[in-house]
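Morning!

As promised:
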Amino acid sequence: MNEPQTLPQYFLKQVAKYGAGKIALRQKELGIWREFTWQESYENVRLFALGLLSLGVQRGDKICTIGDNDRQYLWGYLGLLAVGAAQVGVYTDAIAGELAYIAGHSDSTFALAKDQEQCDKLLEIRGQVPKIKRVIYWDDKGLWNYDDPWLMSFEAVQALGRELVAQEPDRFDTEVWLGQGDDQAVLCYTSGTTGLPKGAMLSHRNLVTSAAMFQQVDPRTDTDNHVSLLPLGWIGEHALGIAPHVYTGIIMNFPEEPETVRENVREIAPEGILYNSRLWENLVGMIQVRINESTWINRKLYQWFLPIGYRVADKTLHNETVGLGLKLAYQLGDLTMFGPLRNQLGLSRIRTAYTAGAALSPDVIRFFHALGINLKQVYGSTEVTGGLTLHYDNDIKFASVGKPAPGGDVMIAENGEIRLTGPTIFQGYYKNPEATAEALWQSEDGRVWFCTGDAGYVDEDGHLIYLDRVKDMITLANGERFSPQFIEGRLKFNPYIRDVMAVGGPTRDFVTALVVIDFDNTGNWAERNRLNYTTFVDLAQKPEVYKLVETAVTQINANLPPAGRVRRFVLMHKEFDADEAEMTRSRKLRRGVLYDKYGDIIEAMYAGAEAVSVKATVVYQDGSEGVIAASIKIAALEA
Amino acid sequence: MGLKNNLLQIENISLSFGGNAALSDVSFNVRQGEIRAIIGPNGAGKTSMLNCISGFYRPQKGRILYKGVTDLTQTPTDKVATLGIARTFQNIALYTGLSTLDNLMAARHIHMRQNSLQSMLYWGAAQREEVAHRHAVEEIIDFLEIAHIRKAIVGSLPYGLRKRVELGRALAMEPELLLLDEPMAGMNVEEKEDMARFILDIYERRGVTIVLIEHDMGLVMDISDRVVVLDFGVKIADGTPDEVKNDEKVIHAYLGQA
């Protein structure tokens, strides 16, 4: 046997190694986890692949798949790759129009669709996708009365395959070994923020290399479990599920229904998992609510041990030794609280948990580390086959998105843009050479880089920090760029700060900020510290409150490039109010309005004044108007 | 149309509570394998009719022949279920303290053959039987898409889901005739459409004959084969949805004197 290059070739290698002696995948069905060995998986893939051949699939064809993560989706995936076709993943909840665009643009010749819902969509757009010869479904529920020959069941395709096996028993293996590493494996449509989605072409080599790169940082074994929960339209499942499944033999587990995913994760307790950042944030909220509703003893344990968890997490993350006393205390906490909590989340066996998508708050990452969950940030894009930078064990910085994976590299372009390179860089956008040329850039040493459109910088330890989209960055007079949203977002994690507007621009030399305190939290803090106050303005102007906010700003500054640091700020005399058009109803800043309205304050900050007097007309809830006059202090920080 | 096709033959049913006549001389039939709707304004006697069929009420006059032989008006209530008749209620009647799964399993008791001692030992045939029942119940859970609430306590579920669990419990009895009392009442449009789809699936896939009471006229007309209309306890129309829709008496009953 040659050295495997493609995903199906790796699959054959695993089948030869494990055969009927080991579980390849599980799926929960009718309340029971059904297990399938590598041999059974092989039979199913083989029959489906040969069935496709009988139906006339050619090497280089595209086949789109739309449906929940089920075993048939895996078998279909490997089967179509085995005969040289490429997979086009579509989000399950894609509307008919999106499906028509992707199926049409990708020139798909067949479609794999789970059930009635997806078949109905395809029937609806049938006129727009003339190239699709057949739709293959794998769940016949509700399709009993459909007798359109365009639709065909997964089993019927496999039955065709069975006939071919009888005639040509070696055909499947022959087909698999015709594959080359640079063959196209996946066409992944990126949800471009502007314009139509673009189909990123990824080769077998891209996917296999990506799996190999992650394997070096976070090794997986053939007893590891993976719960297949990410949508096929996204690169994550390809790179962290299917590729490692055939590359290292991790066991795939398919949930019963999309609604039961969380329960199924708990039953499987996987060793690795990827959730998007929103989901991790939701989990924090869920844990806090559950603890509050729990028994007295549970609440107490949580209150006692969480600070200990934080201390241990801070030390281990910075590679400091944890003292014996602290270690013992943590072990007690692990026994009584952290362990059971991890079990509740289905993370009792987790070795590495990943977050991707939007930047996750450092507080959330730190929280999970305190619970003993090794949560790491992954950063990349579809065009580099998923993650290209990630946190390494014991080298986790909350504010960073990690360091390049082995073989990958990061550079910052002159305009502050993050560019990525490595063996996982894609083959280009399907039928779109202009966009491909725009996205790729060749450096002097001949390496090809993917231009992410994201802004960021690399800190002194080699960690990549993601700031914002390049187009949302603001340039200062000295040519430096900064991200107002990054500063605002980080500052708002502080419980005493409700809103922030970071200010800068081509005529400004440095960054300043208008900060609105959180009246409730700051008020509580003041009461605990025996600080008397009357009104919002009075509280905001207390020197102690300035000190409190200054500490927060200094902390954020430490994570920013010097030019982008906040040098002056004021604590506003009133909250930003949607009724006064200062914010939208969804609490997004209306920057133009705020610039106009608080121009005096902003000018005073840049003029180096120590205080500025303000007069504000406020609209009360009954519609009457009043005027607040006050002097507000300007805090200056060292550069 | 021979009498053989008639699953239910309802003949001259009269029911009164004290001096109030709830049903007067109502006759109609339900054919094997159809969806039969009973509609009518409030207080028309729809639920009373259903209660007579399921043996909850005893009509003073008339008879209800099931499969041409058994007179349901003379059958004890607990025997009606074993004949293959299941129902759901207007105001959901589930064991609120039990899980979805347990509610459905409880409905299987009419099919359980082992005695108490065998069940307690949970050995041999008793265990095999339990596994078979659980399988049947899981098929229903899959069919009604309620896997995510399998272990949830029914009392904590939202209304729409409880309605679905109740339908599941009726299905778990593996009925030949399913009586649904306002299965879509109080639901939003999406839930109603889901429920309509389930009802059609039950009818198509499981070959169950369905009698349903419903207020939402649009849905009734969409999914029923035949409709009987009651008003003040009297049958005023009987026929296909189109026939009924254009019947003057029906229009009058629903819209008042024109």
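Chain B has ten helices and ten strands.

Hope this helps with the figure draft.
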